[in-house]
Amino acid sequence: MTAKPLALIVDDKEENRYYLRTLVAAYGYEVDSAAQGAEALTKARHSPPSLVISDLLMPVMDGYTLLRHWKRDGKLKDIPFIVYTATYTAPEDERLALDLGADAFIVKPMEPDQLMTCIRQAHSKVIDAGFKSTHAPSANDHDIVKQYSATLVRKLEEKTIQLEAANLALQREVAERARMALVQTGILNALPARVALLDSDGMILEVNDPWRRFATAGGLQSPDFAVGANYLQVCDSAGPGWRDEARAVAAGVRRLLAGEAAEFSFEYPCRSPRQERWFRLVVSPLRQFESSGAVVMHVDITQQKLDQASVKEVSKRLETLIEQANVGILVQQDFKPIMANAEMARIFGYASKDEIENLPDCKVLFADDEQTRIAAYNRERLEGGDAPRFYALNGRRRDGSVIDIENRAFAIQWGDRLAVCSMLTDVTEQRRIEAQLRQSQRLEAVGQLTGGIAHDFNNLLTVIIGNTELMEETDNPFLRGLAEMARKAAERGAELISRLLAFSRQQPLDPKAIDINLLISKMDGLIRRAIGGQLEIKTILGDNLWHVFVDPSQLESALLNLAINARDAMTNGGCLSIETGNIHMDDADVADQPGFAPGDYLLVTVSDSGVGMDTDTLARAFEPFFTTKEVGKGSGLGLSMVYGFVKQSRGHVRIQSEPGRGTTVRIYLPRAADGAALASQEVRDGALPRGSEKILLVEDDALVREMVMMQLGNLGYRVVSAAGASEALGVLNAERGFDLLFTDVVMPGGLNGLELADEARKICPGLRVIFTSGYAENAVVHDGRVDHGVHLLNKPYRRSELATKIRAALEQGAS
């Protein structure tokens, strides 16, 4: 096996030797190396190489000297000598090397492939020449020495210049380092922290001014905290006040200095008589050149702690506010809930807010037909569009029931994304109450319309009824029948007007304390005749009932209307039940019923087993003229009259009904005051009372005035009439002897009936007065009730009612 050629590398720099050794070895050479010429010469003489690659500028023996000795040595002179230099690169440098016998002169740097080509070419030439060097040294040794000396002088001059430049650069670097040291010291002192620099053993190398000031203010101005002290030892020897914290700090710093941690931080309080302060200790590694250490910073974080405590308190209050808010709060991104409050869970029927937050898609909280609209609003809102911030929608509770919701929605920043915050209010109950209010307002409007027509309409009916009663006294049967028919028709019209006034709570009431069980018992026969014998009637009358304060005739009409409605609802038979009992209603009982005051009531419950009503019908049950009966079989005023009468009596009425399950009407009537005198409920029959007293009749309607004069004259009274208040006062001033003033309430001309009565009593003290009106407004009726001590005869009235009222007023004395 052929031995590898040996290459000797000569260079004073280890990195250059390593590079050439690696490169040459890769091309099949054995490699040896030397750091300078003398070492190379010794190695070569001991073991001659196949070639030598040498630098020129080296200590002890440079490359030129090595080359001169090499070529004069009989064993070495034919071995190829290749110069590889970066220092001697001038043409005269190359000429000197070649004159000394160099086989090749290569200037650094050179590409590896190109370098190896030059080396192998030089080696091959020697081999081709029979292992004889192709470059013999020049014979003129004197010239070579002279040339070598000149080269050395030139290189010394160059080196001198380089040294002077290096010295100048070093001076500049020293100055720059001094300046940087000042800058670093300034920066160190300007830092808002107490800073110390430690070496790898924990020795304090440098501290900044804040460190010194803090030590001075804290009474710690001692060698333990100055430059040269060992920070770790100071911590290890800390006193009882902060021993545990100091040892924890020392352990953390040691781990960092050992390279076991990239950073160490520690927060600790520093208590003083004036204020508790907080600091954060931050220790970071400090590496400079070959050494290592640490930077220790004590940062005052007192204000940060105070700010954190303030933020925590605000957050706590905000959390409390959110949890106690009476609106549901939901924050979601892409309909995935990320926050909800307890009210949100309550509104939608969930056990807790966690159940809301764990929903995969919060669109399930809204009705199916709302989800597309909500998604569009959210998309538009997040894109900065003009989506409504407030809108109503239908929510869906956990049990599937639908509720009315008002939503106030807006976009908020949540982390690095926008989210939608919705504030939702359950307005289901509010909507129901609003519907009740609208219903009440609608009914009130109808009532106002009723009052507007009642006055004139009742005047007309008064004339018709009065005249037909007179016509019924004729001996002609045909005329008497016509008169009776006309009177009954007029009475039906009067009943309609009365019901409208009752509904609108403008029917003058004459309330009395009555025993309601006695009233119902006396109505038993009337009710049975009204509903027919095919229906069962049950009366459950409570014991020890309170007396009620109502107008008995209006209550009778209300009960009769309810009985007739029940009859019409039970076409195939059934049961009508009337039940009475005492009841106390507290605030909670009446909370959802506008206009229902808490207190003691007597409850009258009228129930039937008829067809019942659906939700839409039930909502309009109290509206006047609303009826489900065929045309001609109901006026639609029965329930509205009941509603108006009960409300006017300061009571309340509730109705409950479902299709196929009958209807229940509950009437709450106010309890009469203790000790109130019980009114007589007997009915007296007999001939019409008559008299001969002198009566002043005041009526602006000529037809009514003429008819009433005729009726009063037929009853034996002496009558003087006037068309208005002014005319009546003139009559009183002109005549004497009047026993009674019978006056309309509503009249043109400035004075109403009440004002006329006051003026008349000034002229005729003790004058008895009866008022009459088709619509009394507020002159003699207040809060729906006739003023105490006032005699009022409502139009239209029958002759019997006129005769009875006139006689009662005259016999009672001055009103």
Question: Short summary of the structure?
Answer:
With 815 residues, the chain is an alpha/beta fold.
Fraction of residues in H or I helices: 40-55%
Q: What's the oligomerization state?
A: single chain
Q: What spatial order of strands do you see in the largest sheet?
A: 2-1-3-4-5
The largest β sheet comes out as:
5 strands, parallel
How many beta-strand runs? 29
Poorly predicted runs: 681-685
Rg over CA atoms? 61 Å
Mean pLDDT comes to 80
**Gross morphology:** rod-shaped
- Give the CA-CA distance, first to last residue: 158 Å
Structural class of the secondary structure composition?
A: alpha/beta
Per DSSP, what share of the residues sits in E-state strands of 2 or more residues? Answer: 15-25%
Q: Number of DSSP helices?
A: 24
How would you describe what is shown here?
The chain has 815 residues and is an alpha/beta fold. It contains 24 helices and 29 strands. A 5-stranded parallel sheet has the order 2-1-3-4-5, sandwiched between helices. Strands 7-6-10-9-8 form a 5-stranded antiparallel sheet, sandwiched between helices. A hairpin with a 2-residue loop joins strand 27 (781-782) and strand 28 (785-786). Helix 15 crosses helix 20 (638-648), helix 17 (552-569) packs antiparallel against helix 20 (638-648) and helix 22 packs parallel to helix 23. The chain is rod-shaped and about 185 Å long. Mean pLDDT is 80; it is low at 681-685.
Features:
single chain; 815 residues; alpha/beta; 5-stranded antiparallel beta sheet
Fold blueprint:
Layout (H helix, E strand, L loop, with lengths): L5 E5 L3 H13 L3 E5 L2 H10 L4 E4 L8 H10 L8 E5 L5 H9 L4 E4 L4 H17 L12 H50 L3 E6 L4 E4 L1 H9 L13 H6 L6 H15 L6 E8 L4 E13 L2 E10 L1 H23 L3 E6 L2 E5 L1 H6 L5 H5 L10 H15 L7 E7 L5 E13 L2 E10 L1 H44 L5 H27 L8 E3 L1 H16 L4 E5 L7 E3 L1 H18 L5 E11 L1 H4 L8 E10 L6 H5 L18 H11 L3 E6 L5 E8 L23 E5 L3 H13 L3 E5 L2 H10 L5 E5 L8 H11 L4 E6 L7 E2 L2 E2 L5 E3 L4 H14 L3
Parallel strand pairs: 1-2, 1-3, 3-4, 4-5, 17-19, 23-24, 23-25, 25-26, 26-29
Antiparallel strand pairs: 6-7, 6-10, 8-9, 9-10, 11-12, 11-15, 13-14, 14-15, 16-18, 19-20, 20-22, 21-22, 27-28
Helix pairs in contact: 2-3, 4-6, 14-15, 14-21, 15-20, 16-17, 17-20, 22-23
